[in-house]
Amino acid sequence: MNSGFLRSNGLSVVLLIMFAASFCGQLVSGFSVLNDERIERGMAPVSPLQYLGQGQFLSATFENWESEFLQMGLYVLLTVRLRQRGSAESRPMHEEKEKIDPGPPPWPVRAGGWWRRLYAHSLSGALLLLFAAAFVAHWLGSWRQFSEEAVGKGEIPPGAWSYLGEAQFWFESFQNWQSEFLSVLTLVLLSIFLRQDKSPQSKPVAAPHSQTGT
């Protein structure tokens, strides 16, 4: 991997490394926690490969991914119409002409028609599709975990559709959703008054608090 590649892709490379390290940490710690619980209940421990299909792992993983994709998808859509005066996270209060670097536009733009219309909303669409996929994976993983615990107590587990009405599932979702919306709100408001030199998420250091957008 040469220095030119790292300079051009350093942000995504570092974030990918941080994600992989955190994900491995989740796997190792979650595997240990689950097997400790199973041994306490007199159950046989699972193998690392079996752990990937356990409800505990699936639920914990996808409930977090679900909230992240929901946050980003809705934020992309909300910032189309809504403004926050003074925030670096908002579009300017008055419309400005878009600045586009010289070069050929992406092929859907050149194709025009429906291709262009789809491409014009592809970012929010992709994020919301990822949210939907993660939501389903969280639902099924949480249902599997809930069912395993019910069987361990000698109870009859609910069906997958019935589980959508369980408070446990929505508790897992809402506790993550509210934290994501709070973090975005915090960034929107703090960027009015605070700065981070050279960050695209911040206004220039000398910019007045009233300046909106970067």
Overview of the structural elements:
The chain has helices at 3-40, 48-51, 55-81, 107-111, 113-120, 122-152, 160-163, 167-193. With 214 residues, it is mostly helical. The protein has a domain at 11-52. Helix 3 crosses helix 8. This is Transmembrane protein. The chain crosses the membrane at residues 12-34, 118-140, 177-194. InterPro entries: DUF6766 (IPR046657). Pfam families: DUF6766.
Please give the alpha-carbon distance between the first and last residues. Answer: 32 Å
> What is the string of SSEs from the N terminus onward?
HHHHHHHH
Task: Kindly estimate the percentage of residues that lie in beta strands according to DSSP.
Answer: under 5%
Query: Segments where pLDDT lies below 50 for 5+ residues?
Result: none
Residues in helix, %: 55-70%
What class would the helix/strand composition place it in?
mainly alpha
Average residue-wise pLDDT: 91
- Number of strand elements: 0
Q: Number of helical runs?
A: 8
The Cα radius of gyration reads: 22 Å
Q: What overall geometry do the principal axes of the alpha carbons give? A: elongated
Largest sheet: none
InterPro entries: DUF6766
Pfam families: DUF6766
Protein name: Transmembrane protein
Keywords: Membrane, Transmembrane, Transmembrane helix
Task: Tell me briefly what this model is.
This protein has 214 residues and is mainly alpha-helical. It has a domain at 11-52.
